[in-house]
């Protein structure tokens, strides 16, 4: 991952990361007290809560990119507690501002083995984004990072190898006209594939057959473009109707 996109590592003044075992005990106590579901997830919007519960209680037992996609799609400010090894990283997502707050540099977070990343809990954000009137609720300036590069890395390198639910099914895909292609951290065969998608639409099957691509790379690329708000999905296109992959 391009190290220039993120500043390195735990900034001074940030709290120590909680141990995963201690945080799990805290979650267990919440569930016991509320009869099986955390009182904090109940504070989320009904649509986001329903989306997260598809993946498991409190949004847990799921891939990080799935939960991130849901939070971005609903445009909510949430904190995702991610287990990495023996510690828990609170990742606060400001979807509308396209920012995240994280006590660990995102390139360090996604640089760890993806199998080690586990969503433990999702709750409404307590922190506020930069520029809010109440400065006491705004996290340390050096702990804010752009959201887009993190979403790209999670889509391209995370555990999910299938299309996100919102873009799956027979469809023709194309890059949205307003997407800044040159700003994407694409490498290798991905760059010409993106440029070609900007000129013409393609089904998943067709995209997988392009030079340097296969089904998994095509799937990850479409997920990544969707998370950049840079993907047009057409389900009425004749090629989508004829597509027999699914």
Compact description:
The protein has helices at residues 20-34, 46-53, 64-74, 106-111, 147-157, 190-199, 204-208, 215-227, 238-242; strands at residues 18-19, 77-84, 87-94, 99-101, 117-124, 144-146, 172-175, 231-234. Residues 1-14 and 57-61 have low confidence and may be disordered. It has 246 residues and is an alpha+beta fold.
On the 0-100 scale, what is the average pLDDT?
83
The share of residues in extended strands comes to 15-25%
Rg for CA atoms: 19 Å
Order of helices and strands: EHHHEEEHEEHEHHHEH
**Roughly how many Å apart are the termini?**
32 Å
Tally of contiguous helical segments: 9
Structural class: alpha+beta
Query: What are the segments in which pLDDT stays under 50 over at least 5 consecutive residues?
Result: 1-14, 57-61
What is the domain total for the residues? 2
Shape: globular
Helix content: 25-40%
Major β-sheet profile: 6 strands, antiparallel
């Amino acid at each position: 991952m391009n190290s220039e996109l993120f500043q390195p590592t735990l900034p001074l003044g940030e709290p120590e990361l909680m141990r995963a075992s201690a945080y799990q005990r805290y979650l267990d106590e919440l569930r016991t007290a509320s009869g099986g579901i955390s009182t904090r997830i109940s504070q989320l919007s009904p649509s986001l809560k329903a989306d997260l519960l598809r993946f498991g209680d409190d949004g847990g037992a799921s891939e990080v990119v799935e939960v991130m996609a849901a939070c971005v799609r609903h445009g909510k400010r949430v904190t995702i507690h991610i287990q990495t090894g023996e510690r828990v990283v609170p990742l606060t997502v400001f979807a509308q501002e396209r920012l995240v707050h994280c006590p660990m540099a995102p390139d360090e977070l996604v640089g760890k083995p993806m199998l080690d990343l586990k969503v433990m809990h999702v709750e409404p954000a307590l922190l506020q984004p930069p520029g809010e009137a109440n400065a006491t609720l705004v996290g340390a300036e050096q702990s804010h990072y752009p959201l887009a590069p993190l979403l790209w890395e999670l889509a391209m390198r995370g555990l999910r190898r299938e299309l996100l639910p919102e873009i799956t099914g027979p469809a023709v895909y194309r890059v949205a006209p307003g997407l800044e292609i040159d700003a994407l951290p694409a490498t290798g065969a991905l760059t010409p594939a993106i440029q070609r998608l900007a000129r013409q639409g393609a089904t998943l099957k067709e995209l997988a057959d392009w030079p340097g691509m296969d089904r998994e790379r095509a799937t990850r690329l479409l997920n990544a473009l969707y998370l950049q708000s840079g993907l047009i999905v057409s389900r009425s296109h004749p090629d989508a109707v004829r597509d027999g992959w699914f």
